[in-house]
Amino acid sequence: MRQYLVAGNWKMNGARATNEALMQGICAGAGDIPGVEFLVCPSAVHIQAVAGQINHAQVSLGAQNVSEYDSGAYTGETSASMLAELGCRYVLVGHSERRSLFAELNEQVAAKFAAAVEQGLKPVLCVGETLSQREAGETQACVSSQVGAVLELVGKAGFGDAVIAYEPVWAIGTGQTASPEQAQEVHAMIRAQLAELDADLAARTRILYGGSMKAANAEGLLAMPDIDGGLIGGASLVAAEFLAIGHAAANVQNQ
What we know:
8-stranded parallel beta sheet, alpha/beta
């Protein structure tokens, strides 16, 4: 059985004092939600401080981005080895904001994925279609190409314990959410694509939903057979809301 993962992407938010209070709340509440893994991904400048505030085994640390290069003259970049040294276990790659605002293409995302795996990090591969692509019936082609670029580069062996996060771009920060059935359709499609390469890989890979999931809609989404958690934005900045999503996952798990 795949363990639920509730991942928080803090984006460019946070300060030392507010992060400390947030982590105190998350770590204090995680123990009341057995069987659910939590992940926090703070801004790069706060990773080291947050690492020192994690005091619960169910809470993992991640980064929001990583360079495809391990060292060299790449001003402003952060390598996978640096993140690993700071205690990160996970790193987001290919988030829709990186793709749209910073022009990251599938090939670069795949290279970042490979760099993370090389240093023992677990990539969270973000994939998803825009509203125009959905309306044009291009959801499958878009998502399959994003997943396929990684599989082509790293293969089954390189995929390891990676996570995939399906984030319909039209539902990120808009208040819109894919219905459980819409999300399940794409999650099942992603799992089928993995199964074409290896059935065991498909069965063990966690696929998160990442489009405006919050406490109010989490249980309906998490009840779908191929949704294994959430990649949470704004709701991850409030400990009670973030933990409520974890409770929803535990409720589904115990049904």
